[in-house]
Amino acid sequence: MSSSKKTAVVTGASSGIGAVYAQRLAARGYDLVLVARRAERLASLAEQLTKAHGVDVRVLAADLEKEADVARVEAVLKSDASVQMLVNNAGLARLRPLLDTSVDDSLQQVALNITALTRLTQAVLPAFVSRHEGTVINVASVLAVHSLPISAVYSGTKAYVLAFTRGLQAELADSGVRIQLVLPASTATEIWSEEVSGIPLSALRQESIMSAEDMVDASLTGLDSGETITWPSVADEGLWTAYDGARAALFAATQTGTPAPRYTKG
Fold this sequence. Notes:
Elements: E1 7-11, H1 16-27, E2 31-36, H2 39-53, E3 57-61, H3 67-79, E4 83-88, H4 103-131, E5 135-139, H5 152-171, E6 178-182, E7 187-188, E8 210-211, H6 212-224, E9 229-230, H7 237-253
């Protein structure tokens, strides 16, 4: 395989954010492996991208909630030396109170948002580290830092993506491998429907909704500028600096080995 060949693997690529990532990366000259459940949509997108950009696009129909399908994608990531980027975009939201949520719905979110993302990242990293290059983009959510009465499981899974990604960034700081965390707010995708999340797009505050195109373009601009953590809709960068500084101070305050005075008698 030619060393000049570069491939990006995009999960959840059949629509929305994943499809836009595929379009933008094809325009940048990446060959693609498109992963999603809906084979017909993937095939249509692959044809469009090949015609528009002359890139090689492979389709891998896979349900990443299923062990066997995750394993098939892992095999590509481990064996294809041209893979230089992994976009962990596939995700699932079931937005309702936990008492109104089936165990299956909760476990599906965990399987896709946490387990699949972790496994695919772990599959691709050895080759990236050995070559001292490669990029992983993990798409989380602003709900990683905020829980709603309807988002306990979803926010929990996205908080995992935040913590997992930041840990990897620290581990791989001197490796040449780039790990970007993207935290979009409400984005116009098919996740917002009665059938998927339980909430239609029309129920959201319309001025808060970003297009998938704007979200991905902002994210890639952040990547190009060297950001490791990208908040596409946050104008004041100082808000994240203050938040992260407070987090670090809180953690430092835990390292005393003695109970806080308010927990001691007398």
